[in-house]
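Lay summary. Proteins are chains of building blocks that fold into shapes, and those shapes determine what they do. In this project we predict the shape from the chain. Here is one chain we studied, written as its sequence of building blocks.
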Amino acid sequence: MSLITTPNFYKSGKRYFRDFSPNDDFYELLIDTHRDLSDEQSNMVNAKLILLLANHIGDMDVLAEALKAAREDV
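And here is the predicted shape, written in a compact code that computers can read:
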């Protein structure tokens, strides 16, 4: 398995009529998750989310690839 960098958002059972709609749905969820949080709380949510998703992925090669990609151009 390798890191998927093309849009890959979907919701089971939901039909999307535009390619970017699932991306918009995720962005809305992300913004709503951070709404009304302090910067410290928002940073904590991000850290917890990273660890939860990393655990879900589990594949160390994919995680290493993702970490490398995240650092590029920073």
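What the prediction tells us: DSSP finds three helices and no strands in the chain.
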